[in-house]
Amino acid sequence: MDLWLTVLIASAISFATKFLGYVVPQSALDHPLTDRVMRYLPVALLSALIAVQALTTGSGDVTIDARAAGLGVAICCLFARAPFLVVVIAAAATAAVLRAFGVG
Amino acid sequence: MSDAATTPDAPTAKSVARKGFWVGVATGAYGISYGALAVTAGLNVWQAVALSLLLFSGGSQFALIGVIGAGGSGASAIGTSALLGLRNGFYGLQVSRLLQETGWRKVVAAQLTIDESTAVSVTQPDRALARTGFWWTGLSVYVLWGAMSAVGAILGNAIGDPKTFGLDAAAPAAFCALVWPRLTTTRARVVAIAAGVIALLVAPHAASGIPVLVAALAAVVAGLLPDRTIASAEDI
C-alpha cells in the first residue's frame, strides 16, 4: 500500500473516532449511572496509559527500568506538591542519569 | 473537587492556560523523537508532519511508524493505530459535555481531543476552567507537536537516541501530574490503581491499544457500585 494512502486512511479513522465522541447524543448519556461511569473514564484510561508507558516493553511484557524509576520520582514530587514542570523534568532527569550509569 | 476554590493554590484561567502551554512544550520535546523515528521508519518529512497534523494522536503515530519501520503492511499499521486511538472517542464523550461547542469549533475540538487536552480539561474544578484548559493545551500541543515533528524529521538521527535524555520517562510522568488533582476521593484513587494493574495484566496477552481499553472496566465498576459519599456526580 502506498505510504501516503496509509497516512491518510489512518488520519481519517483517527478523526472519525474523536468526532464520534462529540456526536453521540447527550441524552444517551444522561442517566446518573452512565454519568458517573463517564466521569471516572478519563482517570481509568489515563492511569492505564501511564502504566503501559512506564512499565511495559514494546511487545507488552511488564518490565522495571529507568522509566519506572522516573515515574517513582514523579510521584514523590507530586506528594511534595511540586509544580508540573518540575515533576516532568525530574522524571526525565532520573531516567537519563540512571541510563548514563548503565542502569535500565 | 468542590473545595478547590477555597485552597490557596486554586487554579485561575491564567494558571490553567500556563499549564496548557507547558504541557505543549513537554509534548513538543517528545515530538522531536517522533519525527526522527518516523523518517528512520521510512516516511518522508512531509508524511511524518502530515501524521502529526492530521492524525494528531502521539500513541497512534508511534504505533503506525513502528509497524511500517518493522516492515509491516499498511493495513496492519492502520489497524494498530486505530486501536490505540479508540480511547480518544471515550475522551470525546466526556470532554464534549464540558465544552458544549457547536459548528466548526466542534470539529476543531474533536481533532484536538487527545490524552493531554483531556487530562488538563477534566481535572479543572469548573466548566469555564475546563474549557480554558482544553483549548490552551490542545492548541499548544498541536502547534508544538507539529513543529517539533518537522524538526525531528529534518534532523533525523543527528539528535541521537531520545532515551538518553529520559524523554520516554517524561510522558508517563506528565500524565501522572495531570491526573493527580483528580485523585481527591478514595474511589478515584482505587480506579487509578486498578486501571493500571488491569492494563499491566492484559498487556502481555493483547495487541497494543487493547490494555488501556480493557482498563476502562475500572471506571465502569466504580460508576455502577453504590457510594453513599457521592451526593451527585459533581462530587467525583
From TrEMBL, chain A:
Transmembrane regions: 37-56, 68-101
UniProt xrefs under InterPro entries: Brnchd-chn_aa_trnsp_AzlD
Domain of life of the organism encoding this protein: Bacteria
Keywords for the protein's UniProt record, in alphabetical order: Membrane, Transmembrane, Transmembrane helix
Stated name of the protein: AzlD domain-containing protein
Organism listed in the record: Flexivirga aerilata
Taxonomic lineage of the native organism: Bacteria, Bacillati, Actinomycetota, Actinomycetes, Micrococcales
TrEMBL record, chain B:
Keywords per UniProt: Cell membrane, Membrane, Transmembrane, Transmembrane helix, Transport
GO cellular component, one term: plasma membrane
Listed InterPro entries: Brnchd-chn_aa_trnsp_permease
Membrane topology: Multi-pass membrane protein
Domain of life: Bacteria
Residue spans crossing the bilayer: 21-43, 63-86, 134-159, 165-183, 190-222
Compartment list: Cell membrane
One BP term from GO: L-valine transmembrane transport
Family stated for the protein in its record: Belongs to the AzlC family.
Protein name: AzlC family ABC transporter permease
Organism: Flexivirga aerilata
